[in-house]
Write a structure and sequence with these properties.
Helix content: 25-40%
CATH class of the largest domain: Alpha Beta
CATH topology of the largest domain: D-Maltodextrin-Binding Protein, domain 2
Distance between the termini: 91 Å
Structural class: alpha/beta
Strand content: 15-25%
Number of strands: 10
Oligomer: single chain
Length: about 260
């Protein structure tokens, strides 16, 4: 009769080795996952075609400013970006408190600089005076504030207007009617409840396509040239990304990416 081998593996020993191996693998995979974990930066704003498109309460689906920000953050290691769309005043408040990291597109002013750090300019766009040729068949041109004081002017509520016209709005020497969005202003032009409406060039031309029968057109002279930025929260820590954002933005300007986004129909 043959003898059994002098060595025999013990079930407990194998189980211990297997457990140790599984534990090691789990720790290694966890460490690798942590090393590749993306910090998610929340850049908010309200729906504002063609710059930010989508539905309130949901993630933005596109738009010039959203797509530009996606391109920027795609080149920043360890950081991803999300673009929740919420009402404008709430967006400013969330960034001020640090609940969100930034605003995807806005104008710089002293009040906002108190709680945000701004990137270099993303792009500049003219603010124009829009009117309906149906109701003003002779057209409309303006030379000074007196011309605007003689007509019913509409503005977007909560929007900061720059230049002398913006100052006149702020100090009350130019009386205006405020509406929640530029699309409301254009509907009021169509309904002859306003004579003119202030809106930037890109937004205005996007909105004219919604009212093709009413020939909404701009006066030749702009009220100002608006300079738009990304604004990052001082409180959330988003502001620490501004130098890296500026580096990528400069490269996208040099290679023509920003101009191509702005020219896209």
């Amino acid at each position: 009769m043959s003898r059994r081998p002098s060595w025999s593996p013990r079930r407990g020993s194998c189980a211990s080795r297997a457990l140790a191996l599984c534990t090691w693998l789990a720790l290694a995979l966890g460490a690798a996952g942590a090393a590749h974990a993306q910090r998610v930066v929340t850049l908010t704003g309200d729906p504002w075609p063609p710059f930010a498109e989508g539905v309130l309460g949901q993630e933005a689906t596109g738009g010039i400013a959203v797509e530009l920000s996606r391109l920027i953050f795609a080149e920043i290691d360890g950081v991803d970006a999300s673009f929740p769309l919420i009402p404008w005043k709430r967006a400013l408040r969330e960034v001020e408190t640090g609940a969100m990291d930034g605003i995807v597109l806005l104008l710089k002013n002293p009040e906002r600089e108190r709680y945000m750090v701004f990137t270099e300019p993303l792009f500049s766009i003219a603010t124009l005076v829009w009117y309906s040729r149906v109701h003003r068949p002779d057209g409309f041109e303006w030379n000074d504030l007196a011309d605007l004081r003689a007509v019913r002017v509409g503005v977007t509520r909560g929007h900061h207007y720059s230049g002398p016209v913006g100052s006149a709005i702020d100090d009350g020497t130019l009386r205006v009617t405020a509406a929640p969005k530029a699309e409301n202003l254009f509907a009021m032009l169509v309904g002859n409840r306003l004579d003119v409406a202030l809106s930037n060039e890109s937004v205005g031309y996007a909105l004219t396509r919604r009212f093709p029968d009413h020939a909404i057109v701009p006066a030749e002279r702009p009220t100002s040239i608006a300079v738009y930025h990304l604004g990052l929260s001082r409180k959330s820590g988003g502001a620490e990304l501004v130098p890296r954002i500026n580096e990528v933005l400069a490269r996208l300007k040099r290679d023509g990416t920003v101009d191509r986004l702005l020219r896209r129909p």
